[in-house]
Design brief:
Blueprint: E1 2-7, E2 16-20, E3 32-38, H1 41-51, E4 55-57, H2 58-63, H3 71-80
Parallel strand pairs: 2-4
Antiparallel strand pairs: 1-2, 1-3
Length: 84
């Protein structure tokens, strides 16, 4: 099972973003909340939505250009996530 976190701030004043441990876009310790260990991204997102109903995946945020694209980080990031 992987460890998941959610941002404690809203991205673009709208969304909280769920990240898996090791994600190159994982925010600093003070800007994230531990969600727990989950067998899948879907379970982590479900838990996050209990705290922050506007939660979405980091991959979705990338596809909508909500996260800044750094191509080195992007390659690493996509290896951690699947698109929903």
């Amino acid at each position: 099972m992987k460890i998941y976190y959610v941002t404690t701030f809203k991205l673009h004043h709208e969304f909280h973003v769920v990240h898996v441990e090791g994600c190159s876009y994982l925010p600093t310790f003070l800007s994230r909340q531990f969600l727990g260990r989950f067998p899948s991204y879907e379970e982590a997102l479900k838990e996050s939505k209990k705290i922050y109903p506007t939660s979405l995946s980091a991959s979705f945020a990338l596809t909508k250009n909500y996260l800044p694209i750094n191509h080195e980080k992007l390659e690493s990031h996509l290896s951690c996530w699947h698109f929903v």
